[in-house]
């Protein structure tokens, strides 16, 4: 018998969750325009919308809040954060930002000139938005396997080096301000990049004098996959693997709201002193003094501790294990999900789940709405709505992946919560034929998924048949 493991923490404080009736959920969903982003959290039972900023902090972090140094300049808390980043990630220069996109803004403004091309292993919404706002075009250089949710590949986030070489040949290294390498790849399903691939990308970029900037948001999760799957790493610590990963990059943007185990914060880190000095100027313009960058002293205290807690081998093993606990039960029940199960989320394949819907009927949006209606579990769309429209043609971008993301907050839910989610999805799969598509009633011009509103395309205005509705 395989011995079971449990959460490597015990609960010191609890937060009751809402348990609404079907009728109440239905009303809440209608009010939210069938967009799970617009549902009030007071109406949500298990919130798998995002792992961003939803972390439960440790008692050490809560305790440290009280010791935060709120000095405007030269805060002790900033020094602790700077030291933690240097120690754990190994970059020389660090600048705090209010969250990850603050770092993306500064990096994009400084490195990109109009007409540039930024190659990356699949886009991320805010990252690409900042690149485009500064006049660059994003080019996807991820391996083809990443676009097929059924293919098993241990490192589905890898860069296709032939694609990268081709971009360099076509546009010229001087028009590539940097390669943006995400570890792990959020939109591919939390899929990791191998150490070998990181090294090869770095070597190729150095030949052409191109910088590699990591989107390090989930780098600890990536490190765990390397330990588990890549030859030669099984006996190395997560801390050591992480350090090696960072050595194949010139810097990183970081959203502290994920792997740094805090609710707010971020940073920009690099080894190039000149870039650091220029970045510091922009931090003052957009974020705040370079010794707080939009964070309170107490937030920096908490992040400094979170960064160190995140590389605990037991923590990260349970973290990835819990995501897998959800994903593998769904696979066993025959539910179409992206394989292999990634680091922070399980992704339902909405095309395969709802094959009767065309992509223009927003199958993933409809499935996320139906899941909420069925059980109060909140997920989010990652498909045609998130992909937005083509800049030049104005048409919908039509990504191959039409997914519903079930994102697991760190240290918040137990494996029992995961089991409840499994039961709801399995039930929903049985009644999937009765789920209808949606039409978009309101479409914001940028990052439309946050605020778009929808309504069901059925004749009676119902999202799904109510013959076997839940309580
Ligand atoms: C969350 C996230 C960001 C942006 O960070 P924020 O802290 O939300 O601004 C960038 N890249 C990836 C991969 C992310 O998941």
Task: Walk me through what this model shows.
- By secondary structure, the chain is an alpha/beta fold.
- The chain folds into 2 domains: 22-51 and 313-468, Aspartate Aminotransferase, domain 1 (Alpha-Beta Complex), CATH 3.90.1150.10; 59-310, Aspartate Aminotransferase, domain 2 (3-Layer(aba) Sandwich), CATH 3.40.640.
- 38% of the residues lie in helices and 13% in strands.
- The protein is built from 16 helices and 14 strands.
- It has a 5-stranded mixed beta sheet, with helices on both faces. A 3-stranded antiparallel beta sheet has the order 9-12-11.
- Helix 2 (59-65) packs antiparallel against helix 11 (297-309), helix 4 (100-111) packs across helix 10 (273-286) and helix 12 (313-332) runs parallel beside helix 16 (415-430).
- The longest helix is centred in the last third of the chain and has 20 residues, at 313-332.
- It is globular and about 65 Å long.
- The protein starts with 21 loop residues before the first helix and ends in a 15-residue tail after the last strand.
- The protein binds pyridoxal-5'-phosphate.
- The site of pyridoxal-5'-phosphate has 15 residues, from helix 4 and helix 5.
């Amino acid at each position: 018998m395989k011995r079971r493991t449990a959460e490597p923490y015990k609960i010191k404080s609890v937060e009751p969750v809402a348990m609404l009736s079907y009728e109440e959920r239905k009303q809440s969903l209608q009010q939210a325009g069938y967009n799970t982003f617009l549902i009030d959290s007071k109406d949500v039972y298990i919130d798998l919308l995002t792992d961003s900023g939803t972390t439960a902090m440790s008692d050490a972090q809560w305790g440290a809040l009280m010791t935060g140094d709120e000095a405007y300049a030269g805060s002790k808390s900033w020094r602790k954060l700077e030291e933690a980043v240097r120690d754990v990630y190994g970059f020389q220069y660090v600048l705090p930002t209010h969250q990850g996109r603050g770092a993306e803004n500064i990096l994009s403004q400084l490195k990109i000139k109009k007409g540039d091309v930024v190659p990356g292993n699949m886009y991320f919404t805010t990252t690409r938005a900042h690149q485009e706002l500064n006049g660059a075009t994003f080019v996807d250089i991820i391996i083809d396997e990443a676009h097929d949710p059924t293919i098993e590949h241990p490192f589905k986030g890898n860069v296709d080096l032939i694609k990268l070489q081709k971009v360099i040949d076509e546009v010229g290294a001087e028009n590539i301000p940097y390669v943006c390498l995400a570890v792990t790849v959020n939109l591919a399903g939390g899929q990791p990049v191998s150490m070998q691939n990181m090294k090869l990308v770095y070597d190729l970029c150095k030949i052409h004098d191109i910088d590699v900037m990591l989107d390090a948001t989930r780098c600890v999760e990536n490190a765990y996959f390397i330990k588990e799957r890549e030859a030669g790493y099984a006996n190395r610590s997560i801390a050591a693997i992480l350090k090696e990963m960072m050595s194949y990059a010139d810097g990183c943007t970081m959203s502290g709201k994920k792997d740094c185990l805090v609710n707010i914060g971020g940073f920009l880190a690099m080894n190039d002193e000149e870039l650091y000095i220029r970045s510091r100027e922009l931090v003052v313009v957009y974020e705040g003094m370079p010794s707080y960058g939009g964070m309170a002293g107490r937030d920096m205290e908490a992040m400094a501790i979170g960064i160190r807690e995140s590389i605990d081998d037991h923590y990260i093993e349970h973290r990835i294990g819990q995501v897998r606990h959800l994903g593998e039960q769904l696979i066993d029940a025959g539910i179409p999900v992206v394989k292999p199960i990634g680091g922070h989320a399980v992704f339902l394949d909405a095309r395969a789940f709802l094959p009767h819907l065309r992509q223009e009927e927003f199958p993933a949006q409809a499935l996320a709405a139906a899941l909420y209606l069925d059980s109060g579990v909140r997920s989010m769309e990652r498909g045609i709505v998130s992909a937005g429209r083509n800049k030049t043609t104005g048409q919908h971008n039509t990504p191959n992946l039409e997914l519903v993301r079930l994102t697991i907050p760190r240290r918040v839910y137990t494996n029992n919560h995961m089991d409840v989610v499994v039961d709801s999805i399995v039930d929903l799969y049985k009644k999937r034929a009765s789920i209808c598509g949606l039409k978009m009633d309101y479409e914001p011009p940028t990052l439309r998924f946050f605020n778009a509103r929808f309504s069901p395309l059925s004749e009676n205005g119902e999202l799904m048949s109510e013959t076997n509705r839940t309580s």
